[in-house]
From TrEMBL:
Pfam families named in the record: tRNA-synt_1 (PF00133)
MF annotations from Gene Ontology: ATP binding; isoleucine-tRNA ligase activity
Biased composition (Basic residues): 1-10
UniProt keyword annotations, A-Z: Aminoacyl-tRNA synthetase, ATP-binding, Ligase, Nucleotide-binding, Protein biosynthesis
Chain positions covered by the region annotation Disordered: 1-25
UniProt-listed PROSITE patterns: AA_TRNA_LIGASE_I (PS00178)
Name recorded for this polypeptide: Aminoacyl-tRNA synthetase class Ia domain-containing protein
Gene Ontology biological process terms in this record: isoleucyl-tRNA aminoacylation; post-embryonic development; reproductive structure development
Highest taxon of the lineage: Eukaryota
Domain Aminoacyl-tRNA synthetase class Ia: 85-245
Keyword set includes Ribosomal protein: no
Length: 258
């Protein structure tokens, strides 16, 4: 039994013809997606074998299973297939190869809106990361050289909360008693606590981004650049006090086309 995209049921011992139709018990029914026989570079009908372009000009042969088999997981596993693709990318060093091949292209610089360095990734990070990956891949496909740097948010309450809990700090005076310098240094020490977990999760989702050349908001040059930008806004009289409605927390990525 096969199901067509129009939910038309086809009974019998059905086999897919090369023209996209279905041959079943001596009769033939054309499916809505019936088309001419595929060329060597296009996907073949379900159950056939197609030759498809592999990364960087190579050619790979893959089997395309019947949809019923895929859905029921008889001979196909999406997670295992994803892992095979990741292994291929790692073997080819695909991300860095893409960067090398587009070095002469127009720059498209991407700094990932940094997650807090003190927690593990959740659904929101994965969703936003997928959108960011789509944008940067699209720019790469347009021939641009897309630098993609991962980042870490090292400021704010999440880091302080972790340290306060670890040191048993419950009030402001205890921070002064410990010493601001020592307190800050202790905060810095946990910034890379979950780096390996983040890299494993982001890589597993199929995203391409540079973890080795990451940035941290606690870096002096990063903080000075933020203050410089704010100073430019202040001098142009673009800083004002007002009110706005914030209905949700959004992850911010910085895009700049040079």
């Amino acid at each position: 039994m096969l199901w067509s995209p129009g939910h038309r049921r086809i009974q019998g011992n059905a086999q897919m013809r090369s023209d996209g139709g279905v041959k079943s018990s001596g009769t033939t029914a054309a499916l809505p997606f019936a088309a001419a026989a595929p060329s060597p570079e296009t996907p073949a009908p379900f159950g056939a074998t197609a030759r498809i372009p592999a990364p960087f000009g190579a050619t790979a042969t893959v089997g395309v299973e019947a949809m019923d088999d895929v859905c029921e997981g008889k001979d196909f596993s999406f997670p295992q297939q994803e892992e095979r693709v990741l292994e291929l990318w790692a073997k080819l060093d695909a991300f860095h190869e893409q960067l090398r091949r587009t070095e002469s292209g127009e720059e498209f610089i991407f700094y990932d809106g940094p997650p807090f360095a003190t927690g593990l990734p959740h659904y929101g990070h994965i969703l936003a990361g997928t959108i960011k990956d789509v944008v940067t891949r699209h720019q790469s496909m347009r021939g641009r050289h897309v630098s993609r740097r991962f980042g870490w948010d090292c400021h704010g309450l999440p880091v302080e909360f972790e340290i306060d809990k670890a040191l048993g700090i419950t009030n402001r005076q205890q921070v002064f008693d410990l010493g601001i310098g020592k307190y800050n240094e202790t905060c810095r020490s946990i910034v890379t606590k979950y780096v390996s977990e983040w890299e494993a999760m982001v890589t597993r989702t199929g995203r391409w981004i540079d973890f080795k050349n990451d940035y941290k908001t606690m870096d002096i040059n990063f903080m000075e650049s933020v203050w410089w930008v704010f100073a430019q806004l202040w001098e142009k009289d673009l800083v004002y006090k007002g009110f706005k409605v914030a209905s949700l927390i959004s992850l911010i990525a910085i895009f700049r086309v040079c």
